[in-house]
Amino acid sequence: MIAALAAHRWRVCALVCGLLSVVAYLARDDVIQLPFADDPVPARMLVAMVVVAASLTPLYATFPALATTFVREPSVRAARPAGVVVLAMIGFLPAVVGSPEAGRSALVDTSLFLSLLAAGILAAVVLGDHAWFVVTGASLTVLFLEALPGAPVAAALAGMGLAPPAVAVLVASAIYAARGPRTG
Amino acid sequence: MTGLVIWLRRTTARTMFPAMVAVTLAVLFSRSGWAWDLGHAVSWASSSTLLLGPLSAGVAAFDTWRQRGRGLRSVERSALRGWQGTLTLAVAVWTYAALAWATAMALAISISTFRYEGSGLGTWWPVLIQAPAALLGATLLGAVIGSLVRGVGAAPLAVGAVYATTAMADIVLGTRSVLAVEGATMSLVGLRPRGDVLAVTLALDLALGAAFAASVVRREHGRSRKALVSACAASLAVLACATGLVTLDAREGHLEPSTAERVCVLGDVEVCGPPEGEAIYRVAQRSLAAGISQLETAGLELGQRTYDHASAASSRAGVLSVDTALLDRDGGLDAWDVASTLSTPLLCEEFFDADPPVELLEGQWNLASWMSDVLSGAGGVAADERSAAQKTLSALERCAPESVPQWAYTSAELREAE
What we know:
The structure holds two protein chains of two kinds. Chain A is an all-alpha fold. Helices cover 66% and strands 2% of the residues of chain A. Chain A has helices at 2-7, 10-26, 43-55, 73-92, 104-127, 131-146, 152-160, 163-179; strands at 31-32, 41-42. Chain A is globular. In chain A, 41% of the residues are buried. Chain B is mainly alpha-helical. Chain B has two domains: 2-188, no CATH class; 263-417, no CATH class. In chain B, the strands form two sheets. Chain B has a four-stranded mixed β-sheet. A two-stranded antiparallel ribbon of chain B has the order 1-2. The longest helix of chain B is centred in the N-terminal third of the chain and has 32 residues, at 84-115. At the A-B interface, helix 6 of A face helix 2, helix 4 and helix 8 of B.
């Protein structure tokens, strides 16, 4: 059991998400002035990006082609995205819960968090080991655009609400459970 | 060449290319108003290097770790030109990143040239060299990190390292264009890059690239004296360029006013300014002429018929205010821009005083609010308001703060908001 957990980096991932949840709670109302950005961005947004990137690690294939020969792989594979979503929630939610200025900004960041998570899980299915690129690329682009005057992404996310990204996470998880990560 | 073709096929960047293009296009189309002058379009389309640089460094680091196994490295060490191996990989990754940048750039240039007739790349062409050079430097830094850290951490570390290098350069040297190119979010009409700062920044990017390349070769292919000497020489060049930037006072700005002869769009109303803004003046001229005739129908007499772009403003003409993000190709200037242009009939010397006269500024604000109401048909029809507006306008035309009437006009929009 322990070996199986270790093979998919669950222990490290859980530790990192636990630490991030503390950071998320402490920094829930901070804004960060990034170097050479015009406007400060909420720390919560950065937390969402780091949590998603870190929590996706168990989804990467550990035994690429060999995994297809494992008897219990299909059932374990279905549990993997569920575990990832739970860990990601543990990492991110303290940033939203109990925040005095929760409201529009918290909604935007939660929506961003869910969208990134859905994109990351889907990327693991489509791109396999290269999923990190999609998450990092999307996060950097959002940061870049948010730190410029106008904040177009926040407006779009606020308009979208929470339901579509939440459904996207469920759909992406289902696809992962059915197909598994791309190997090779 | 064969090596490059092989790496072009093998590198992860090939899979990531659509994502890279998506990033550049997302950045390009996240703002509007850049298409009005080609300089602005080129500058803004290059700002995605700030994202592409770290990403391509991440890919280079990932590939250096993942694709170059122990076996390949030991074969390369025994080959005559084996030292080119890692560099070829980095060049392949760079090719994809540069192509993604070029896609957005080609799109930006063609939109600006053919749709908006934005004129004058002028002094901005060096950006077209600077961006690929910055990307190359960033990618090679990724290869260095990949050869140092052989593991999962390589890619995120490389992303962070490139971003940190750009940020450090901003803090220490005062330039935001090291391993990236800073993009303009505002119109660049009347501005040009400082040639000396630009040349040294470009040299710094190339020197950094050379230093990284030499370190990769030394790290991957054993103790070669040539690589060591090259790394030292390149590091000296980096130091020299950094010192150059500090000496040139890059922090004070990498732009300077352009000295190009001004052009005018003639008609009932004249709009003049630096040549690169001609497309803007044509649209503005139409809106201003329409605005003036509408105000004259409402009973206001306007003396000023010449307006200069803010970057070329003189004490002979009015000042054109224009926000290119709100400038519509068919609809013309934003209504508030028309009102604020027409309520600045002269660039008074008093505006540059340490303590500009409040009367003039308040009069201008009242007049602009009144004009914008009249232009949109939202109010301002009362006779006393019109005569106060006329008096304010003639005071502004003579730059006479003492003859601005006591008057407070609240625009319909503000009244509604209250």
